[in-house]
Amino acid sequence: MIPRKRIDIRWADLASGLLASVMPGDPARAAASVESAWRTARGNLACLSVRSGFDALLSALQLPAGSEVLVSAVTIRDMTRIIEAHGLVAVPVDIDSPTLAVSRAALERARSPRTRAVLVAHLFGSRMPMREVVEFSHKNQLFLIEDCAQAYTGDGWRGDISSDVCLFSFGPIKTATALGGAVMTFRDPALRDRVRGGMSAWPLQSRAAYAARLLKYAGFVVLGYRPFYSAFVAAMALAGLDRERVLSASVRGFAGGELVEKIRRRPSMPLLVVLHRRIRQGVQPSVARRAERARQLAKRLSDAAPAMARPGAETAWHSHWVFPLAHARADALIAHMQAQGFDATRGASSMAVVSATSGECRAPQAETLFSQLLYLPAHEGMTARDIERLAAVVRAFETQSVAAGWPDAQAGNIGR
Ligand SMILES: Cc1ncc(COP(=O)(O)O)c(C=O)c1O
């Protein structure tokens, strides 16, 4: 079975983290090294996770209760949970599926007199153009937060210089992961200092907790290799366990209990050591390899099944962190792929569509996209031949579906 994704970390990175976890060292100094390695002329801040930083930011902003935050409609569920935990209201802004961008018109539609801030996420490894979002935010005096968690590649991009805050994650499934950690970049260094001040009362992540994480993910690195993953799949089946559940439960960052309580920690010294190392490594070789595979797959699919909708097919910039597809029969396609040895998934279960409190559908494109979303394996661990075979398997599914008379077999129906 070809695994869905690889954990993007090397043995030497894991070893450096384990070594740091038994060495003396000052977390404040380690954080300062990370912040200076981040190299922006803005204010940088190292934190335990994007969610921790976002939570501390909302505390520092002290927006009036009931204020609305416009949120690009697909993001991880915890981001909206954090907004709500601060007594604020998340209002979805629809995204355009082919470009994965939010338009100025969509932002205008979502705005109300209570709107105070905007949070937009670059999705699936793409980077949306920010000009319209910046203009809209500045014109309406809204605080702009750019979520770059899925779009980091190590190429020196630090988000839009006009965003008030940019968020970068180094969580376990991210590019150049440090198995945790995040960096925030602030337009206003004084606000950075206030956020840092708020975090200073939080307890420190324990070294033991981070070391345990390193060991656990060493196991996942091994699972990224085909024979081990196949053995794991077989073992799960034998034990009657739901592989999807087991995987998503074990990679969930802050599982169980109160989210806010769990994210309120400062990063440990060894985590900061690994984070520093990963940032200094710059462009990741894995990125070029996976982007090459993804482009190859996109080309094969557009030849084989031109009506199939690929969210992000028209993005201005894409690093193909994951390879999403929208399909009216997503579950059947996944079953077909898995039977042929490709671990396609609806996975990434922490992603969700932001729902409007009124219950009405405020983001129709995002809703449709999400209801049909699946991810195909297209990563650095695959060969060009794997991709050819994968495309052939998808093509065979389409042919069978058409023959079986599924009228909307290819209908992504998510715009253009
Ligand atoms: C869009 C987006 N925002 C925020 C996060 C949270 O990042 P972290 O795990 O660093 O809290 C993620 C993580 O997957 C994400 O994909």
Describe the protein's topology:
Blueprint: H1 11-20, H2 27-37, E1 43-47, H3 50-61, E2 68-72, E3 74-76, H4 77-85, E4 89-93, H5 104-110, E5 115-121, H6 131-139, E6 143-147, E7 165-169, E8 182-186, H7 189-199, H8 207-223, H9 226-238, H10 243-251, H11 259-263, H12 269-281, H13 285-304, E9 323-326, H14 330-339, E10 351-353, H15 364-371, E11 373-376, H16 384-403
Parallel strand pairs: 2-4, 2-5, 5-6, 6-7
Antiparallel strand pairs: 1-8, 3-10, 7-8, 9-11
Helix pairs in contact: 1-8, 1-12, 2-12, 3-4, 3-7, 13-16
The structure holds pyridoxal-5'-phosphate.
In brief:
This protein is α/β, with parallel strands linked by helices and 416 residues long.
Textual characterization of the structure:
- The strands form three sheets. A seven-stranded mixed beta sheet has the order 1-8-7-6-5-2-4, with helices on both faces. It has a two-stranded antiparallel sheet with strand order 3-10.
- The longest helix is centred in the C-terminal third of the chain and has 20 residues, at 285-304.
- The relative contact order is 0.18.
- Residues 409-415 have low confidence and may be disordered.
- It is built from 16 helices and eleven strands.
- Helices cover 44% and strands 12% of the residues.
- It has helices spanning 11-20, 27-37, 50-61, 77-85, 104-110, 131-139, 189-199, 207-223, 226-238, 243-251, 259-263, 269-281, 285-304, 330-339, 364-371, 384-403, and strands spanning 43-47, 68-72, 74-76, 89-93, 115-121, 143-147, 165-169, 182-186, 323-326, 351-353, 373-376.
- It is globular.
- The protein has 416 residues and is α/β, with parallel strands linked by helices.
- It folds into two domains: 11-199, 3-Layer(aba) Sandwich (Aspartate Aminotransferase, domain 2); 285-403, Aspartate Aminotransferase, domain 1 (Alpha-Beta Complex), CATH 3.90.1150.10.
- Pyridoxal-5'-phosphate (PLP) binds at residues 49-51, 75-76, 79, 121, 147, 149-150, 169, 171, 182, 253.
- Pyridoxal-5'-phosphate (PLP) binds next to α3 and β3.
